[in-house]
Amino acid sequence: MNFKGSPMKRALLIPAFLLACTADTSWASTENEFLDLDLSQLMQVKVTSVTKKPQELADSAAAVFVISNEDIRRSGVTSIPEALRMAPGLQVARISSNKWAITSRGFNGFFANKLLVLMDGRSIYTPAFSGVYWDSQDYLLEDIDRIEVIRGPGATMWGANAVNGVINIITKKTTETTGGLISLGGGNQEKAMAGLRYGSQINESMAGRVYLKMNDRASSELSSSGQDGGDAWTTCQGGFRIDGDNGTEKWTMQGDLHQGDNNQHLINLSLIQPPWIYSNDDNYDTLGWNMLGRWNHDFSADNATTLQIYYDVVERQEFYLNQDHNTFDLDFQHQLRLGSNDLIWGLAFRSTCSDFTKTITVNSTTSQVSFSPSTLHHDLYSGFLQDEISLNASIFLTLGSKIEHNDFTGIEVQPSARLLWQINNQQRLWGAVSRAVRTPSQIEQYGTMTTYVIPGMPPTVATLGSNEQYDSEEVIAYELGYRFSPRASFCLDLATYYNEYEKLRSYSASPYRNFTNNMYGSNHGVELASTWQAQYWLSLQLAYTYTKNNFHLDSTEDLSSAPVAKGSSPAHQLSLRTALDLNDQTHCDFWLRYVDKLNVASVNAWSNDWVVNDYVELDISLSWQISQQLKAQLVGQNLLNSSHLEFIQESFTARTELKRSIYAKINWDF
Amino acid sequence: MRKWLIILATLWLATWSTPAGAESSPLDKARFPKVQAAYVLNFAKFITWPPPSPAQSHHTFIIGIFGAAPGETLLQPLHNKTAQGEKIEIRTYTSSKDTEQCHILFINQATGKDTAELLNHLHGKPVVTISTLPNFARDGGTIELFQQGENILFSINLSTAKQSGLSIPSQVLALAVEVLVAKQ
């Protein structure tokens, strides 16, 4: 082991994120994609870029955190949702082997609905409930460039449902993934994983790649008995991407095809005839494909347009519901610099066609979940305008608003004002006030769920039903942030917020309950991210999140919503990552996490008085660069407990605990 | 609500008439240093150095950086790459002392006085000096990188190179925007 090093060497080994913190480097990427270019090619590289403002994140007037490719690689995470645990402000709870509850700034649940998630510009939340089915969101992790996590309302730029945050998963450009990659691994929980990618420069202005990946994962265990959780799953995904660039024109074509063979252990579904209660193992399938095209034209350094079109198909077949969603989306953006104004405006159209069928009819008239009508077609039109104004050399004001028309609530206006003060080279102060809405999802206006059945002749069937009057949930968010980077080796990013909500979702009282908008209140919190390169061979990354919820209900409503809204967030969350370079070839990473207890994780937890205890967990990843081409990695996840509970799903499935996981993996670059 | 909208709209319109204050640099700050590093690597590969002097008898190819952050991170990606058949080693300098051990010295941030002292110190020694400082090549530096429009281009002071015993291939010279040769 070699721990000696000059100050320079220390600087050389500063990891990507750290560079990101300093005022003079980018948050975005670490790799230098230009090193293979010869002089004449270098002379062609454009260093001006205006599109979608790849603004230095250190200089953004919002709470932003970036998970880099290196972070993903070194931590040893094996899925996108697990990588999100690195970001402050996010609450990531794994419900079972194949289900996650992920949210930003409160309101967590399997059906969490106030977070917008985009993959290369394609929205991946489901219109059925505006949340994300994380079990079918995947990519070859080696080819993810970064994940940008923006907490707080991102509604101006990104649209409705970006109420409390936006996650942008951005894959690498194909010019950065030329060559082959084979990755193979396996362990006790990650039973088998395989990845394959081949990329190549097609001609001078065009490069492409194809990839394929497969994961086979073991089940968790039941909280109640310690027996098999019945949630093992296998996923398969493949896709391609082609990028073209001839100077003023850039274009991208990409597509993915994914398939999942999943299991879940269903409990306590209600039947309206004996035996009244149904519990069983359910084998459910997911299937989908998407195709996206993006075209970018630079008229000049200060004037650029982007046009993006995608089509996305998702199918999900579960015991209690089959759903098909087809989405067409068209997005146009124009960016323009005029004097001290940096303008972006855009127009978008989205059309969604959803089809719901019952797989199994629990009886002739009711199923567990149903939609009426069973085929839904919705259009969404939106436009936005945002202007970043340089008030002087160091103060920037950003004003903007999105206006959209949706088929549920008509016109929605979501304005925001942001101010950034570059105090000096080391400090930034920013503040923002924004309004955002969470528009109704299909289930709230067209769905019905059976909640319980009281046996009898005839039986009493309690339902939670749709409400055509159900309105958007609203938030006014006040944010204040501060960044401090006294030197390249240290930075601190602090964000605070106070959100005032109106018309939050509630339920009218039993037994025939409807979705209503009668919950009010506020939440506030503090999020801290800090990176410290203590030695050239040692860096520490800390993320801390504090959340405090305060919600109340109209007295006419069912009592469950407010306790759940309050109790589903941990008061404190802490993540400490330590990256240790034993030498240039051998790296060791420790990741310690603490998550405070959840008093009321969900309505299911509320009715059963179940608490999710606080927990401390540790991941350790060891990696060896055996040769230029070959890398081996040994990873232990959730090492401190043989199993632990992170969340309790709203309904349908049993409480399951995650088991300790150990796997080994080999990556071969060729 | 409406009142506020009107006030905001008025304020917004007012900004159109304000003169462009301090426009932020059009440079994408992420790309600029990356391209600079790639240039340095190219020069390391194509320039020919005279046989090593005792001061340079190392088994590494040494690239030095003069000037503090953010420069210290700039050449990070070059570490452990190879040039002239040897592994690249990156060193930092805060004075001209020992800079003659470098094959390439990248002058990142320096005052005019520092620059003059460095160039004076390295005069006639086989060290390629590279910088983005204005008029660097004219002032006796070997290679000056500069932005023209959207591109980063370079000029070469051939006289400096020759005096130092460095040989720059004609293909490289052909790409230079300007090749400076001192009058005889």
What can you see in these coordinates?
The complex is a heterodimer of chains A (670) and B (184). Chain A contains nine helices and 35 strands. With 670 residues, chain A is mainly beta. Chain A has a single domain, classed as Beta Barrel (Maltoporin, Chain A). In chain A, the strands form four sheets. Chain A has a 22-stranded antiparallel β-barrel. In chain A, strands 1-6-7-4-5 form a five-stranded mixed beta sheet. A three-stranded antiparallel beta sheet of chain A has the order 11-34-33, with no helix packed on it. In chain A, a hairpin with a 2-residue loop joins strand 27 (512-535) and strand 28 (538-553). Mean pLDDT of chain A is 86; it is low at 1-30 and 48-55. With 184 residues, chain B is of the alpha/beta class. Chain B has a single domain (27-180), classed as Rossmann fold (3-Layer(aba) Sandwich). Chain B has helices spanning 2-17, 31-46, 71-74, 112-122, 158-163, 170-175; strands spanning 60-66, 82-83, 86-93, 104-107, 128-131, 143-148, 151-157, 178-180. An eight-stranded mixed beta sheet of chain B has the order 2-3-1-4-5-6-7-8. In chain B, strand 6 and strand 7 (151-157) form a beta hairpin. The longest helix of chain B has 16 residues, at 2-17. The model of chain B is unreliable at 15-29 (pLDDT under 50). Chains A and B meet through helix 1, helix 3 and strand 19 of A and helix 1, helix 2, strand 3 and strand 7 of B.
Explain briefly what this protein structure is.
Chain A has 670 residues and is mainly β. Chain A has nine helices and 35 strands.
